[in-house]
Amino acid sequence: MNTAVDVLVVGAGIVGLAHAVEALDRGLTVTVIDRDHRAIGASIRNFGHACVTGQSGDLAELAHLARDRWLDLDARAGLGARTTGGLAVARHATELAVLEELADRRAGEVELRTAAQVRDALPGGGADDVIGGAALLADLRVDPRVTVARLADWVGAQDRGEVRFGTTYLGFDGVRAHTSRGAIAAERVIVCVGHDLDHLFPDLAEENRVERCALQMARAADPGAVVAPAVLTATSLLRYPAFAETAAAAALRTRMASERPDLLAIDANVMFTQRPDGTLIIGDSHHTDRTVEPFLEEAVTETLRAEAARIMGLDQLRIIERWQGVYASSASRPYLVAEPEERLSVRIVTSGVGMTIAHGLARRHFPT
Predict the structure, then answer these.
(1) Which terminus of the chain has fewer CB atoms gathered within 10 Å of its CB, N or C?
(2) Cβ proximity of 329 and 160 under 8 Å
(3) Other C-beta atoms lying within 10 Å of the C-beta of residue 343
(4) Burial, 204: exposed, middle or buried (Cβ in 10 Å; 0-12, 13-18, 19+)?
(5) What is the end-to-end Cα distance of the chain in Å, rounded?
(6) Which residues pair with 23 in a beta bridge?
(7) How far apart are CA 79 and CA 41, in angstroms?
(8) pLDDT at residue 2, rounded to an integer
């Protein structure tokens, strides 16, 4: 066990591990600590979807940096990354208009698909009202249940890397990081604790309006068919900035407010991805607060399940598991880069796209 390192990373989720990888690639020694005995937070409670195509501006640049790193790490660490992309399903002219506008802007990254092509990609042949869609060619997929653990194992197996689970961070005195398992001398500490930022730096969290976003998600039984891409729907087009910033998105939002207020009321992003075992991760709803209740509403899960089944063209979609997702959220910024103390940095993603941009954030904003 290291007692002195160049970099100590606090948090073994995807953001912390991305910074550990960056440290290793810069020739530095790095120890990652996490209070839990394995990753159990936002990094495993998600779709395993790197929605590269759905980002715009600065986030798009970070997402593409991250995509390159995902593919590089997949070759080195066997993470199981899949380049099967995403598929946005259009069931109304307002949805297709958004996709057509984005395809025109992002030629080579967004390709329109016919109704028949979309239906062929869906396990039940798709809803009767599917009129088209778009392939999101830059998107990546991983299995969230295993990928972060594999990456942690890989970091810990490197000569200059170490991962210590079951180790709580207690503070940094400028020379040593104090933990529940003793002190570690460190040239630099990088805190990547996501939505738990307020436990360590409450003033920083308040200043940057960092709260917790709770999600209702579920896993459905194998539908008996392969779903290669991550599948996005109308509500996805209202959440991800590349779609939401199109001129056509205003008409889509107006229509959804009139026809599907139930989805907007739970701030839904109806989408799904398939795990290697064939089961489907479906979701999700969103609720933000400083402290979120742990209780799941069955009516919300049923709304998401029914809509996902309808899009697939399935009469039945059996839920076999439910959980509450959670991530850091800020109304003022998509990610936080801060230096609250000398030689101590904070890096968290505050917009629910940690799997999409974490590696890009580490590459661009690694502290020096």
Answers:
(1) C
(2) no
(3) 14
(4) middle
(5) 24
(6) none
(7) 18
(8) 77
Q: What are all long-range contacts of 127-130, with beta carbons under 8 Å and residues at least 24 apart? A: 127/91, 127/310, 127/311, 127/312, 127/313, 128/313, 129/91, 129/92, 130/89, 130/90, 130/91
Query: Nearest CA to 346 among 203, 151, 175, 133?
Result: 203
Q: Are strands 182-191 and 176-179 parallel, antiparallel or unpaired?
A: antiparallel
Written as six digits, the tokens of 294 are 């742990």
Query: Residue 3: what pLDDT?
Result: 85
3-state secondary structure the chain: CCCEEEEEEECCCHHHHHHHHHHHHCCCCEEEEECCCCCCCCCCCCCCEECCCCCCHHHHHHHHHHHHHHHHHHHHHCCCCECCCEEEEECCHHHHHHHHHHHHHCCCCEEEECHHHHHHHCCCCCCCCCCEEEEECCCEECCCCCHHHHHHHHHHHCCCEEEEECCCEEEECCCEEEECCEEEEEEEEEECCHHHHHHHCHHHHHHCCEEEEEEEEEEECCCCCCCCCEEECHHHHHHCHHHHCCCCHHHHHHHHHHHCHHHHHCCCCCEEEECCCCCEEEECCCEEECCCCCCCCHHHHHHHHHHHHHHHCCCCCCEEEEEEEEEEEECCCCEEEEEEECCEEEEEECECCHHHHHHHHHHHHCCC
- Taking the whole predicted model, whether its pTM rises above 0.85 is answered as yes
Residue 62: closest CA among 279, 368, 365 = 365
- How high is the pLDDT of residue 56? 97
Q: Phi and psi at residue 93, in whole multiples of 5°?
A: -60, -30
Residue indicated by tokens 């539908």: 223
Contacts of 239 (CB under 8 A, 6+ apart): 269
Residue spans of the chain under pLDDT 50? none
